[in-house]
Amino acid sequence: MLTAIFTDLHANREAVSACLAHAEQRGAQRHAFLGDLVGYGADPAWVVDTVMAHARDGAIVVMGNHDAAVIDDPGKNMNPNARAVVEWTRSRLNAGQLAFLASLPLTVESGDCLFVHASAAEPRRWEYITGTVEAVRSMHATRQRLTFCGHVHQPALYNLSLTGKISSFVPAGDSSIPLSTQRRWLVIPGSAGQPRDGNPAACYALYDDVTHDLTFLRVPYDVDAAAGKILAAGLPQQLGRRLEAGL
């Protein structure tokens, strides 16, 4: 089965629409959404409704820290801009949409895959996987051979050999990699809604569980429209500029 994997959608309708259309063209048979459906962007209701529709069709969906903040409390570690958007987002979602976010699990296991927003080691701590130490800790926390996660907004791939040797890879552009069944893997597709690697094009990944091929993909979208909506909504201007710069 070919699974399209999206993370950190961040209420960006233009980017999410472009990624979903691209995945359909590539023949995706299933979808997985790795959290942070909301936050930063100006279309939280549309994104939540879209993911809800895919969930009804069998998509995997897990909770992200921005989703948790909207239904609970932002927490002391969330920056002021993100906090402001959390409050704004909460006022834009209806009871059904909020209930959907509240119902999301922190992790989902499917076959030899684990889906989580941040680290599998302690999912609710929202640890960023920025290097091999965090990647190994996450991989050791699950029996699954493949872990798919987000949270860091930059594409990355880590693998752990049978002897415990860890290595990492940063994909550039569209990259296809065969995932050896003799290794364990941690996959970060990058952010669909707010990339932060200097490239404003949206990110997602495709995984074929028959051939074990993983493909990182970049999808151009109407960044100006998404940034303009942020400004029109009265949200922090910096968030629109970040989209334009991919930072």
Automatic annotation (TrEMBL):
CDD domains: MPP_superfamily (cd00838)
Domain Calcineurin-like phosphoesterase, chain residue ranges per copy: 1-208
Molecular function GO labels: phosphatase activity
Pfam families found in the cross-reference section: Metallophos_2
InterPro entries: Ap4A_hydrolase (IPR050126), Calcineurin-like_PHP_lpxH (IPR024654), Metallo-depent_PP-like (IPR029052), Pesterase_MJ0912 (IPR011152)
Listed GO CC annotations: cytoplasm
PANTHER family membership: BLL5683 PROTEIN, METALLOPHOSPHOESTERASE
Family note: Belongs to the metallophosphoesterase superfamily. YfcE family.
Protein name: Metallophosphoesterase family protein
Gene source species: Noviherbaspirillum galbum
